User: Which sequence fits this backbone?
């Protein structure tokens, strides 16, 4: 069942949300303020999860048990992440945050374990962001088209592909690009 066209009040959605062992749902455009969204071990678009334009103010993403909640291939475009908490979450490939207001602090909570992945951070303010550390494998296929990237430090996995091939962006003053070496 999806609630995307019903525009139900938060209290009714809260009653309908499966807060333990959550079943995948399409929450596009819904108000999930203060809700806890958890499942046993993974959340992906292939399982039916979607949060396009969703209000996730003060929402919590966490695993049902003490394990890690893996989030992959989910569209969070234009979602409101004000006060959203990610507890024991690992972001994997194919996540779209385009136009959302996820902060660097929220993002890095789940991104710290990432290696090579595809992520869309277009139409966002990435001022001061650091995408992974130089010692990590880095990021491949990062889309930062039309984002504000002043002062950002972005590290990339060296796959003999130029940064121009790996990034779609417009020039912005104050950005640093680094490529990490790969082992032979």
Assistant:
């Amino acid at each position: 069942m999806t609630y995307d066209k019903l525009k139900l009040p938060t209290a009714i959605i809260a009653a309908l949300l499966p807060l333990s062992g959550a079943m995948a749902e399409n929450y596009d455009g819904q108000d999930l303020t203060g809700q806890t969204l958890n499942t046993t071990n993974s959340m992906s678009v292939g399982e039916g999860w979607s949060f396009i334009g969703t209000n996730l103010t003060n929402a919590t993403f966490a695993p049902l048990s003490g394990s890690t909640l893996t989030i992959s291939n989910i569209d969070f475009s234009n979602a409101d992440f004000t006060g959203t908490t990610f507890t024991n979450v690992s972001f994997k490939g194919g996540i779209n945050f385009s136009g959302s207001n996820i902060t660097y602090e929220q993002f890095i909570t789940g991104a710290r374990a990432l290696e090579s992945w595809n992520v869309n951070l277009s139409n966002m303010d990435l001022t001061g962001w650091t995408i992974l550390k130089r010692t990590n494998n880095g990021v491949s296929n990062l889309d930062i088209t039309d984002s504000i990237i002043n002062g950002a430090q972005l590290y990339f996995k060296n796959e003999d592909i130029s940064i121009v091939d790996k990034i779609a962006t417009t020039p912005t003053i104050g950005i640093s690009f680094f490529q990490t070496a790969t082992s032979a």
Observations:
- The CA atoms of residues 62 and 175 lie 33 Å apart.
- The chain has two domains: 1-113, 115-184.
